[in-house]
Write a structure and sequence with these properties.
Layout: E1 14-26, E2 37-38, E3 40-52, H1 63-68, H2 73-83, E4 85-99, E5 116-128, E6 132-149, H3 169-172, E7 182-198, H4 205-208, E8 209-226, E9 231-242, E10 251-252, E11 257-258, H5 261-273, E12 277-290, E13 302-315, E14 326-341, H6 342-346, H7 350-356, E15 364-366, E16 372-374, H8 387-403, H9 409-415, E17 421-439, H10 457-460, H11 467-475, E18 489-506, E19 509-528, E20 537-550, H12 562-580, H13 603-615, E21 636-641, E22 654-674, E23 698-699, E24 702-719, E25 723-738, E26 743-760, H14 785-791, E27 796-814, E28 819-838, E29 843-856, E30 864-875
Antiparallel strand pairs: 1-3, 2-4, 3-4, 4-5, 5-6, 6-7, 7-8, 8-9, 9-12, 10-11, 12-13, 13-14, 14-17, 15-16, 17-18, 18-19, 19-20, 19-21, 20-22, 21-22, 22-23, 22-24, 24-25, 25-26, 26-27, 27-28, 28-29, 29-30
Length: 878
């Protein structure tokens, strides 16, 4: 067992002998170079023998003593063999055997042998140990690759017929590519054969020997085809199949005998002819089309691209559960990208182009006396003795000047704002993902069955299966009859809309407008036979989704009468109820004029009434629930202006002035799901027992509206004397309307931030750095910019002080309870001074201190004070 001071390696009770060897050769070196053959070859061998110190069966007897006591050589070898743990691995492979092109001037042809590449590998493993008598593993792997690519050539039949005619550019640019760009095919076979014989398991091979046979056949296809310069198509597919083999001791039912080796070989050959038994098949199809808008003068300022990508896969059921059918699934993504360059439209017109851009400054010349004068001055005109020539030149110059007349300041001021729209972008994306279990037909070609009708061309290219498709497929016998199928049919859908618009009413004033929408709906149902005698039915239909959209509720953001807004919400319910139904509601008649089934707490009444009140929309026109998820997104914006310092009155005072404003808002439904009591065939069939309200199609737990003016107004200025100041005013609101307890949680925040900064240039702090020797003072005004940068290489001290005031308050509103009380809130005052000292280009020292005073608005909490201070050192090493 060893002693305590011995290491684990010192306590081994076995002797290990191991050797490995490998040789790698390029066999083509033995052939003439002009053959172009490449034959990489690798062979390797590995052997490991572990001999224990003690006999594995008689654990108290050393193996050497036991072998020494045996005189018969065969018996001794048998005992040694059963005691050793022996592993021997050897193999060889030819990888990527191919013929390279020797004639580079010749165009590749599809039938060229250079398109092919072969690989083959063989590995043999033999092992035995005290438990296993013999374990033999044989692995055979071979592959064939075909790769053909060609240089794309487009046929342009009208290119030479129609020339330099912009209105016919769409026709002259017509082109097509009659042949694919390239095709790639790869087939791989991987066969494993393992036979394991155990000791002490008797002499019957059917009981002491285990066989593991696996034969996989994978095929990959890929096709690229640029049908035109703007239409591109891609296709790739993968088929994974197995070559089934007879079990080693299987009984032939016809002869009642074990299958002979010939019968086993015939069974394998037949499976090879049938390309094996497919386990999985999948393909991807992609199409990318750029609309020819560039070919028309009226639309050459637009770029529109359409992308469609679809997938399909077929997965077989295991052999012991094949009665449950196979699983097919597909997906499809449709995307439309549109970009609009409105500046290109303005540049089409010379006058608008001049309006759009700043006019050039008048050119000046200097006479011999150094006096500056405008070019075109009569004194600078060349003298000539021919008056006719002078008149002609003056006339030409006058005509040229008339043609190149620059717009006046008044013209720019009136027309430039009309050219404010600069660029636009729109992205629309739809994605479908579907999973259909219980599908019985097998795949043959392109995911279709032998008759090329199941599951249909539409499904294999990513089309979403409808309820009608499911019913018709079941009638054709494409679905399993088993009542034990418990995997649901899943159909998922997502939609994303993103739009951006850039406006510039005048130079340096920019407005970014954006809008977005995200919608997701996941539908699940059990499509099966409830019993053998029943027909296929759509059972347990469930829909779950989420919804987010850019919103606009700024109309009521500044309304201080929060109780009045909530009262409008309560009053709007009657108008919405009248729009939805007729007749009097049996339980709510004493509270108002509500119609039957649409009482004051009915969800389809509450949601439009809530949106109407907090967007200041007429309740008779607000969108109802059935159109809520198809509502277009509303714009949010961000404004910035940085041209104030360029005005003559301010340019000598300010280095930069940035004025910003932004508004963002979203309406979010984090989740909604199908109401179990809703009847899609008759929505008014079921009512709630207590309130007598109709059940809505979807249960929506809550709607959240968030909006913020960040900032409402922001001003950041930097003066010529290195002083800086900033002012930020922010306002935000969060509305969370819960339809579970009919409570509105409203949080409003107002924040003011004031900042001051000062930069001291070229300062040496004596306690940090050694004072630099005095240098001749340079006048920065007389230095060019390149020398200014070199002159300002001293150390700078930046001092900043920020002061912020933040007010938060949360109010809960409960429907019909006249309760609107602040539940929590606080006022926070924060002061944050800091100083940054740049010692050199690689080392920066920062000192900061922060003080915060939090004053709660409720009596349950107490004021708190937070302070923090520290030093931060940043450095870089090169």
């Amino acid at each position: 067992w060893g002693s305590l001071e011995q290491r684990l390696a010192d306590r081994k009770r076995e002797q290990v002998v191991q050797y490995d060897g490998a040789v790698e050769l390029e066999l083509s070196k033995f052939l003439p170079p002009k053959t172009g053959l490449k034959i990489p070859f690798l062979a390797q061998v590995s052997n490991t023998t572990r001999t224990p110190q003690f006999d594995p069966y008689d654990l108290d007897i050393p193996l050497k003593e036991k072998l020494a006591a045996i005189s018969d050589k065969d018996t001794k070898d048998s005992v040694r063999n059963s005691a050793e743990d022996y592993t021997n691995i050897k193999g060889f492979n030819f990888t990527n055997v191919r013929k390279e092109r020797t004639n580079t001037q010749q165009k590749p042809k599809p039938w060229d042998v250079e398109n092919l590449a072969l690989s083959y590998a063989y590995t043999q493993t033999d092992r035995h140990d005290p438990i296993i008598l013999a374990d033999q593993i044989r692995n055979y792997k071979g592959s064939l690759d075909y790769n053909f690519t060609r240089q794309v050539t487009y046929v342009e039949p009208f290119k030479k017929i129609i020339k330099e005619e912009k209105w016919l550019k769409l026709i002259s640019d017509f082109n097509f590519n009659p042949l694919p760009n390239g095709f790639v095919f790869r087939t791989t076979m991987d066969r494993d054969f393992q036979r394991t014989t155990y000791r002490f398991a008797g002499t019957d091979p059917s009981k002491n020997t285990f066989y593991d046979k696996r034969w996989a056949w994978n095929r990959n296809y890929s096709l690229n085809w640029d049908l035109t310069k703007s239409l591109k198509f891609t296709f790739s597919a993968t088929n994974s199949a197995v070559i089934d083999e007879r079990p080693e001791f299987a009984i032939n039912p016809e002869t009642n005998q074990i299958y002979t080796q010939t019968e086993k070989s015939d069974f394998i050959k037949q499976n090879l002819k049938n390309f094996g038994r497919t386990k999985t098949y999948s393909h991807n199809i992609g199409a990318n089309y750029t609309l020819p808008t560039k070919g028309l003068p009226l639309t050459d300022w637009t770029t529109i691209r359409a992308n469609v990508n679809s997938t399909y896969s077929w997965n077989t059921a295991s052999l012991n559960t094949d009665s449950l059918g196979n699983i097919i699934q597909n997906s499809q993504q449709r995307q439309l990208n549109a970009e609009f360059d409105f500046e290109a439209i303005y540049n089409k017109f010379k006058y608008l182009k001049k309006i759009d851009k700043k006019g050039p400054a008048p050119k000046k010349s200097v006479d011999a006396k150094g006096v500056k004068k405008e070019i075109g001055d009569d004194k600078s005109k060349p003298k000539t003795d021919n008056p006719d020539a002078v008149d002609l030149k003056a006339k030409d110059k006058k005509d040229k000047k008339s043609k190149e007349r620059e717009p006046s300041i008044l013209e720019r001021a009136l027309i430039r704002p009309l050219l404010m729209v600069r660029k636009g972008r729109l992205t629309y994306t739809e994605t479908y993902t579907n999973v259909v279990p219980g599908f019985t037909p097998r795949t043959k070609l392109l995911g279709l069955n032998d008759g090329f009708n199941a599951p249909g061309l539409g499904f294999v290219i990513g089309e979403r299966p409808s309820d009608q498709w499911l019913d018709e497929s079941a009638a054709k016998g494409w679905f399993t009859q088993s009542v034990f199928l418990n995997q649901p049919v899943t159909r998922n859908y997502t939609r994303e809309i993103n739009g951006q618009l850039k406006l510039e009413p005048f130079n340096d004033f920019k407005i970014d407008i954006d809008a977005k929408q995200n919608y997701a709906l996941n539908r699940q149902e059990d499509f099966k036979k409830p019993s053998i005698t029943d027909d296929f039915q759509h059972l347990s239909v469930r829909e779950v989704g989420s919804y987010t959209i850019s919103f606009l509720a700024i109309n009521t953001l500044f309304n201080k009468d929060i109780n009045g807004l909530f009262t409008n919400f309560e009053d709007n319910r009657e108008v919405i109820s009248q729009r939805l139904g007729t007749g009097n509601h049996p339980t709510d008649y004493i509270y108002g004029n509500y119609t039957e089934g649409y009482g004051r707490y009915q969800q389809e009444v509450l949601i439009p009434a809530f949106l109407s009140a907090y967007t200041k929309t007429d309740p008779s026109k607000v969108v109802l629930n059935d159109k809520l998820f198809s509502k277009l997104p509303l714009p949010n914006w961000k404004l910035s202006y940085n041209g104030l310092n360029k005005l003559p009155f301010f340019k000598d005072i300010f280095s930069s002035v940035n004025i910003t404003h932004g508004y963002s808002s979203t309406l979010t439904i984090n989740n909604f799901n199908t109401n179990a009591f809703y009847n899609p065939d008759d929505p008014n069939a079921n009512t709630q027992p207590i309130t007598q309200n109709y059940f809505a199609r979807y249960e929506i737990p809550a709607i959240v509206i968030t909006e913020q003016l960040s900032p409402l107004l922001g001003i950041d200025v930097k003066l010529k004397n290195e002083m800086s100041a900033k002012v930020d005013m922010k306002k935000s609101r969060n509305l969370q309307m819960s339809f579970i307890d009919n409570t509105l949680f409203e949080t409003k925040t107002t924040e003011y931030i004031f900042g001051y900064g000062y930069r001291i240039k070229n300062i040496d702090l004596p306690f940090l750095v050694k004072k630099a020797p005095a240098k001749k003072k340079l006048d920065d005004k007389k230095l060019p910019p390149s020398q200014k940068a070199k002159a300002n290489t001293g150390r700078d001290l930046n001092i900043k002080v920020d002061f912020s005031y933040r007010d938060d308050v949360t109010t809960n509103h409960l429907l019909d309870q006249d309760i609107s009380n602040p539940t929590r809130g606080s006022t926070t005052i924060r002061i944050t001074p800091n100083a940054d000292y740049q010692l050199n280009k690689r080392l920066n020292l920062r000192l900061f201190w922060e003080y915060a005073r939090i004053l709660p608005k409720t009596t349950e909490s107490f004021p708190t004070t937070n302070t923090s201070a520290g030093i931060t050192v940043r450095f870089s090493l090169k």
